[in-house]
C-alpha cells in the first residue's frame, strides 16, 4: 500500500473497538466472521478461538501464522489483529473464516473474585495475558471443547462453562507468552504516537519491501529524525528491528514445517534465499534447516 494520499487520520493508531454487551449479561460471547476486526484494543480480557480459517495474527510486537483451533487469551489494551489469507476459491456468502470470542472485564464476577486464595493461579495468568498467551496440549484441547459447547448453550450454562475454563486456567502451565514486555509500554504510551504508527505499519507490511519514505510520510518525520527516534523507542535500529520481525516470523513457519525453506524465505519478506540464509544464521547462530531439526 502506497501512502501518497494517506494521512494520519486514514492510517490511525491503535483503535479502541468494543463489542456490545446486552443488558442482563455479565460478559460477552461473540461470533466474528471475515473480515475480522482491524488493529485495535479494548479494556476487556478476551479469549479467541479460531473456528475456521488461517492467516497472520498480530499481538503487540508478536506476529505468527494462525489456523483452525488457534487459542489465545489477550489482556486489556493489548493491540491485536487477525489477518485472514485471501481465498479465491470460496463462493460469495460462504463462511470460510470464523472465530468464537469471549470478553469480560476484570470485576465482572465481583471486585474480590481474583483476590481470594483459590484464584491465585488464575490471577497470575491474567497478569501474563498483558503480553498475549497461546495455549497448547491438554489445556488447549479442554478449553476448545468447552467453547464449542458454549455455542449452543443458554446464558446461565455459558456462565458456568466460563467458570470451567477459569478452573483449567487456574492451574495450567501449558501456555506461551507472545509479545515482549517492552512492547506493552510502547503501545500504551500516548506520547509516542508516531512510533506506534510506524510499528503498526511494519507489522502489517513486513512480508514485502517497506519503502522508508512511507514511514517518513506516516510519522511526519525526516530521515535524520526518524532513525534516532525509532532506535530510542525500540532499543535497536530500524533495519535490525525489521530483520528480527522477519526472522521471528520465519522461525514460526520453520517450526510448523508446512512450507519448504524457499517458500518461508519469500513469505517472510526476503527477496532471495541466499540473503535469508545469511541473515538467519547471523541472528540465530544456525542455518534455517538446522533450526528446524533442532526444534523438532
Could you characterize what this model shows?
- The protein is of the alpha+beta class and 296 residues long.
- It has two domains: 15-177, Jelly Rolls (Sandwich); 191-295, Homeodomain-like (Arc Repressor Mutant, subunit A, Orthogonal Bundle).
- 43% of the residues lie in helices and 17% in strands.
- It has helices spanning 120-128, 137-150, 155-171, 181-188, 193-205, 212-219, 223-234, 238-256, 261-267, 273-284, 288-295, and strands at 15-16, 28-33, 40-41, 45-52, 55-59, 62-66, 71-74, 80-84, 98-104, 133-135, 175-177.
- Strands 2-9-4-7-10-11 form a six-stranded antiparallel β-sheet.
- A hairpin with a 2-residue loop joins strand 5 (55-59) and strand 6.
- Helix 1 packs across helix 3 and helix 2 (137-150) runs antiparallel to helix 3.
- It is globular.
- The chain starts with 14 loop residues before the first strand and ends with a helix.
Put the structure in a nutshell:
This protein is α+β, with helices and mostly antiparallel strands and 296 residues long. Helix content is 43%, strand content 17%.
Architecture of the largest domain in CATH? Sandwich
- The CATH class of the largest domain, by name, is Mainly Beta
Fraction of residues in H or I helices: 40-55%
- N-C termini distance: 37 Å
What's the arrangement of strands in the largest beta sheet?
2-9-4-7-10-11
Morphology call: globular
Over all CA atoms, what is the radius of gyration? 20 Å
Order of helices and strands: EEEEEEEEEHEHHEHHHHHHHH
Amino acid at each position: 500500500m502506497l501512502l501518497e494520499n494517506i494521512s494520519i487520520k486514514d492510517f490511525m493508531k491503535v483503535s479502541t473497538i468494543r463489542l456490545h454487551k446486552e443488558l442482563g449479561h455479565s460478559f460477552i460471547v461473540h461470533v466474528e466472521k471475515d473480515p475480522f476486526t482491524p488493529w485495535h484494543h479494548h479494556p476487556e480480557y478476551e479469549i479467541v478461538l479460531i473456528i475456521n480459517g488461517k492467516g497472520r495474527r498480530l499481538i503487540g510486537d508478536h506476529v505468527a501464522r494462525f489456523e483452525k483451533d488457534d487459542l489465545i487469551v489477550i489482556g486489556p489494551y493489548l493491540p491485536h489483529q487477525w489477518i485472514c489469507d485471501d481465498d479465491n476459491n470460496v463462493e460469495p456468502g460462504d463462511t470460510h473464516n470464523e472465530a468464537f470470542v469471549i470478553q469480560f472485564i476484570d470485576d465482572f464476577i465481583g471486585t474480590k473474585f481474583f483476590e481470594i486464595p483459590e484464584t491465585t493461579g488464575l490471577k497470575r495468568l491474567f497478569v501474563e495475558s498483558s503480553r498475549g498467551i497461546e495455549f497448547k496440549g491438554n489445556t488447549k484441547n479442554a478449553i476448545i471443547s468447552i467453547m464449542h459447547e458454549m455455542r449452543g448453550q443458554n446464558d446461565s450454562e455459558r456462565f458456568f462453562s466460563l467458570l470451567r475454563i477459569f478452573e483449567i486456567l487456574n492451574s495450567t502451565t501449558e501456555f506461551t507468552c507472545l509479545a515482549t514486555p517492552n512492547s506493552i509500554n510502547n503501545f500504551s504510551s500516548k506520547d509516542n504516537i508516531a512510533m506506534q504508527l510506524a510499528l503498526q505499519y511494519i507489522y502489517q507490511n513486513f512480508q514485502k519491501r517497506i519503502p522508508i519514505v512511507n514511514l517518513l510520510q506516516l510519522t511526519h518525520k525526516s530521515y535524520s529524525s526518524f532513525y534516532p527516534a525509532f532506535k530510542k523507542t525500540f532499543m535497536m535500529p530500524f533495519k535490525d528491528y525489521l530483520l528480527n520481525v522477519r526472522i521471528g516470523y520465519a522461525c514460526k513457519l520453520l517450526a510448523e514445517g508446512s512450507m519448504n525453506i524457499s517458500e518461508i524465505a519469500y513469505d517472510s519478506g526476503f527477496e532471495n534465499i541466499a540473503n535469508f540464509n545469511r541473515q538467519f544464521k547471523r541472528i540465530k547462530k544456525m542455518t534455517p534447516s538446522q533450526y528446524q531439526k533442532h526444534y523438532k
